[in-house]
């Protein structure tokens, strides 16, 4: 007996009935009557970063470079002369914009700041040549790669992924994006972070081990970059813990600033 020949079920029991067996139930097939555009839940909101001068930059993915300044590599126990930079990611909705307060995240007792130059990709591509790399950049921003250092440390020790140490809610406070058309492509200049007015991190963009064109070129060999992707380019030395009530203020010469109060 097929379902079609059964009497119509009474209203509340309908969802308990076995579904008709047909090709339409195979993965990839839409239910009869469904339209291609009918998502079964609301579409996720697109995270976005305000752009200096107006507009919003929609965020697709966030790639982060590990150990891209020699002194920070040393303070994390690495050897900048032998270790190649590597990548990890944060979810797009980890961005926190507009100088909003950052809630102290759960499951950590060692939340660290990492002050970084953020590159916003405006034009996608794969196997991008270093010489072409900057033409793929929409603009730049100052940002924090906030890190649950205790979770990251435990993961490292166990040879497990870093995701829960790096990719948690609100883990990427980012300031206003400045278009490269306006600011150019900064490759040197102060990158500095103050906590409660005292300088905690201070370096120069010129000290990055892999500069922006090299990073874009290398990363685009692993994944096809797309408009909306962000690259957090690594932090200089001086990373340390913050606590509730701390005010973080970062600045990058020629780019802009970023602020977050930990609450
Ligand atoms: Mn970082």
Tag the structure with descriptive keywords:
single chain, 263 residues, alpha+beta, six-stranded mixed sheet, four-stranded antiparallel sheet, 6 helices, 16 strands, 15% helix, globular, binds manganese (II) ion
Mean pLDDT across residues: 89
**Fraction of residues in H or I helices:** 10-25%
Helical/strand content category: alpha+beta
User: Over all CA atoms, what is the radius of gyration?
Assistant: 23 Å
Which shape, going by the Cα principal axes? globular
Total helices: the number is 6
Distance between the termini: 62 Å
Quick one: biggest sheet?
6 strands, mixed
> What spatial order of strands do you see in the largest sheet?
4-3-14-7-8-11
Low-confidence stretches: 1-30
* SSE sequence, one letter per element: EEEHEEEEHEEHHEEHEEHEEE
The kinds of small molecule bound in this structure are: manganese (II) ion
Query: How much of the polypeptide forms β-strand, as a percent range?
Result: 25-35%
What's the topology here?
Blueprint: E1 48-50, E2 56-58, E3 62-66, H1 70-75, E4 86-90, E5 95-96, E6 111-112, E7 115-121, H2 130-133, E8 137-144, E9 147-148, H3 149-158, H4 163-166, E10 172-173, E11 178-179, H5 180-183, E12 190-195, E13 198-204, H6 212-222, E14 230-232, E15 247-252, E16 256-261
Parallel strand pairs: 3-14, 5-10
Antiparallel strand pairs: 1-2, 3-4, 6-9, 7-8, 7-14, 8-11, 12-13, 12-15, 15-16
The structure holds manganese (II) ion (MN).
Manganese (II) ion binds next to loops.
């Amino acid at each position: 007996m097929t379902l079609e020949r059964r009497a119509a079920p009474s209203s509340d029991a309908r969802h308990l009935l076995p579904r008709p067996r047909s090709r339409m139930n195979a993965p990839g097939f839409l239910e009869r009557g469904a339209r291609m555009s009918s998502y079964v839940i609301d579409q996720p909101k697109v995270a976005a970063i305000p752009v200096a001068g107006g507009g919003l930059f929609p965020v697709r993915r966030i790639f982060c470079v590990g150990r891209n300044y020699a002194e920070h590599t040393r303070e994390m126990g690495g050897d900048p002369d032998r270790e190649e930079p590597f990548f990890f990611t944060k979810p797009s909705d980890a961005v926190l914009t507009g100088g909003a307060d950052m809630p102290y995240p759960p499951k950590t007792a060692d939340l660290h700041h990492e002050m970084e130059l953020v590159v916003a990709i405006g034009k996608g591509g794969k196997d991008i040549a270093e010489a072409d790399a900057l033409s793929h950049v929409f603009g730049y921003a100052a940002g924090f790669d906030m890190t649950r250092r205790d979770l990251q440390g435990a993961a490292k020790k166990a040879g497990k992924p870093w995701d829960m140490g790096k990719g948690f809610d609100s883990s990427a406070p980012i300031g206003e994006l400045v278009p490269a058309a306006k600011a150019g492509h900064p490759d040197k200049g102060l990158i500095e972070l103050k906590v409660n007015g005292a300088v905690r991190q201070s370096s120069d963009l010129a000290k990055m081990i892999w500069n922006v064109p090299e990073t874009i070129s290398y990363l685009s060999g692993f994944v096809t970059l797309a408009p909306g992707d962000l690259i957090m380019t690594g932090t200089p030395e001086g990373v340390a813990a913050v606590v509730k009530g701390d005010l973080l203020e970062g600045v990058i010469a020629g780019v802009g600033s970023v602020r977050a109060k930990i609450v």
